[in-house]
Amino acid sequence: MDFKIDPLHGTDAFGAIVTGLTPAAINDADTRKQLYDLWIDKGVIVFKGLADLDTQISLSEIYGKPEIHPLLVGIDRPREHFVIAEIEYVEEDGDLYEIDGELRGGYLPWHFDLAYMDRINHGGILRGAVLPNRGGETGFIDGIAAYDALPDDLKQRIEGRRIIYRYLADATQAKFGEIPDKCISLSSKISLALEHPAVKNPVTHPMVYSQKGTGRKVLNISPWHAVSIEGMEGEEGDELLRQVIDLMIRPELAYYHEWQEDDMVLWDNWRMLHCACGVPPGEQRKMRRTTIAGDYALGRQLAFAED
Ligand SMILES: [Fe+2]
C-alpha cells in the first residue's frame, strides 16, 4: 500500500484522510476493497491530491455505479458529465440567505441527499472546480455517533417510527434544523427541480435502522426535508422530532471540511448528514458531485400527493 490513512480530526469516531493515492492505484483490487471497507467503517473519506473528473468517476466506481441525479433526468441543461451534479453559487444566479445577520450564498442546511425520494443513493464524491477565497466549508455529522449520544428515553421513543419527507428548495420553509432568517434569492435551477415529477409524492424513511454488515444503529433523520413523524402528525410528534434533531446537529458532533485544491470528499449517504455553510456574496463556489447508486430498501413512497 503506497497511500496513507489518518484520522479525520484527531478522533477515530468517524472519518479518515487518505493521502498519496494515485489514479493508477484506484484500479488495484486490494486497494479498492480496502477503500470500500474504510468507507463503511468511517463514513467519510477525504482524499488529498486527486483532481480531475475522470479520477472522480473512477474513484466513485469503487463504491457503486455513478448515476444521473434523479432531479436532472429530463433536464436539458449542459453540464460537465451526465453523472455529475453541479452545485454552484455565483452571485448572478444563486441561492442567497440571511442567517444571523450574515449573508450566505449557496447555503444548504443539514440533510442527506435524496431524503425526498424512496430510493436514496449510497454515496457521493464531491470535488471543488472553483473554490471561494473565504467560507464554503462542508459539514458532516455521523448518524451512528449521533444515535449513540442520544439519551435512552429518546432512543426508546423513536424506535420503529418513520418520518415523512417531501422536497422543498427554500430552506426558510423547513420545519426543523437550522432555519435561515430570510431567503434573498433562489437560483434558476431550483424552479426546474420544484416542478420535477420525481418529487410529487411524499415518502417515508425509518428514524433508526441498523447498518448492514455491522449492526450499528444509525440515526436516520434528514432535517431539511422532514415534515413530521408518520402517525404523530401533530405538535407532540413535531416536538419529539425537534428534540432529536437539535441533539443530532449540535456543533460538537460536526466536522467542517475546509476545502483545498485537489481535495475530493466521499461520504456514506446512508449514514452521514452534510451541509454547505455558504460563502459571502461576491465569492464563487462551484462543486462537482457524483451520485453513487444503491438502495437500502427502507424508503416508501406514500400513495397520495399533497397539494
Ligand atoms: Fe447534499
Would you summarize the structure shown here?
The protein contains six helices and 21 strands. It is an alpha+beta fold.
Into which percentage range does the β-strand content fall? 25-35%
The fourth-level CATH homologous superfamily is Clavaminate synthase-like
Helical content band: 10-25%
Derived structural class: alpha+beta
Mean pLDDT: 94
Please state the overall shape, judged from the principal axes of the Cα atoms. Answer: globular
Cα radius of gyration in angstroms: 19 Å
Q: What compounds sit in this structure?
A: fe (ii) ion
How far apart the termini lie comes to: 55 Å
Number of domains: 1
Q: Major sheet, described briefly?
A: 8 strands, mixed
Secondary-structure element series: EEHEHEEEEEEEHHEEHEEEEHEEEEE
Helix and strand topology:
Elements: E1 4-7, E2 16-19, H1 29-42, E3 44-48, H2 53-60, E4 66-67, E5 84-89, E6 96-99, E7 102-105, E8 108-111, E9 123-130, E10 138-142, H3 143-148, H4 152-158, E11 162-165, E12 182-185, H5 188-194, E13 203-206, E14 208-210, E15 217-219, E16 226-229, H6 235-248, E17 254-257, E18 263-268, E19 272-276, E20 285-292, E21 300-301
Parallel strand pairs: 2-3
Antiparallel strand pairs: 1-2, 3-18, 4-20, 5-20, 6-7, 6-12, 8-19, 9-18, 9-20, 10-17, 10-19, 11-13, 11-16, 13-21, 14-15
The structure holds fe (ii) ion (FE2).
